[in-house]
């Protein structure tokens, strides 16, 4: 790699090394394990220990042939080994490939085929799946097993982490790698993070250390996280930011890929044990913990900040969850995606004041952009846009596609040229590098990312979400009564969700008598059962029509179907698989 000055080099591990030098004895990571007796055991690492362990692993990986520039799948459950391995990979300049196990076997195989990993690092269960389904078979040359026996690891043709470290300690010094961590260029690939696939085919997002640096800056400056805090870490990727911020990551005993199955007692115990000041929770956990908090009259007096991301949490679930918090403590809702996160932020106090607008079809307010982020709204189009022009920017209060630019915005997908072309817009040189610092390199282009979401900016600069672009319905019903021909999922659904019997709704498109029309799938509140008579069901539908007729956004929605249980993503339990519902609805309408 050509030489470059330090200003244009980065590695997220520099923050860990600084913490290890300044506060080596301070807690960096704690992992909870619930015993059969109901009691808890905690494993801990200090900043000094985490830095030293990751150094040892980085040297041992190099000795095993996993070196800078190589790609390694990392399928290890949140644990002390997960933290040490991840930082070791970053230190060694090895590119970790991180996937969501909940995306399904078929998608996982596709991800590994695209990424072509050189190494596979995983727990025994992950290696068994790798063998059964052929994950990464054409490209993987190094196998490392975390946990399990050495016999198991050898049988697979690889080595265990324990044996690797033992061999590394015996390696002559002349063959060992330097303790100095790899310094990568700001635009050099540092990691590949695959999207969940909940709204389409999973894609590998190329991350740089400069992107990680930008995310750390936002968490420190916009969210106010300070040295010495303790975070209840329920999402593996976010938990890595803890040590980088000088904040301890407390990992509760839960399946991070299925938060809805978490035992609230485990999370409450971990928060109390370490007096956590921060917690990162997605909408599924907000709902689950809020219900448990009400049932148990539980409070969280040590929590000073709650960060929620992944999908919009309902206002009712946030209000319920907030009852556990001290006065003045807010749930900070973040908007973003794997390709660019975080982008905007809004506190729960302000969000709760937007209920009337949301229930009237105004979309969900996701707040103002964080420092360094520019949000623009452009006209809805399926065409690619090669270059940015300010003339593309729509005026306030106009619904269009959300486009963002900032130092945490990724520049492309890994080996997905077509997807990159459709999602990215090249912009002119801005005078800052990807970490937000001044950049003197000439003619450096920046990239705007098309979020694939629809929304609008109000007169105060706040962003309002109106749903996925792919989920809008462009109706061609020939009926002069209805002026609206474009229907957006969130505004329409939130209007109908105000019916007391409705839990949630999903807008889909169906073909009826040669016309494309909007249809609303309805899931009833738990415990609500309608009489299975045509009269009772039609009476319910008439009530929904009456609600829709009051708003221009929904006046043309007159077709409804009751669905027993919406298909949703595993991680957030909030992203509705509308594509599946559309097929179901078309079948139901076609057989009536």
Automatic annotation (TrEMBL):
InterPro entries in the record: AMP-binding_CS, AMP-dep_synth/lig_dom, ANL_N_sf, ATP-dep_AMP-bd_enzyme, OlefBLtnSynShew
Pfam families per UniProt: AMP-binding
Residues of the AMP-dependent synthetase/ligase domain: 17-414
Name of the protein: Peptide synthase
Domain of life the protein comes from: Bacteria
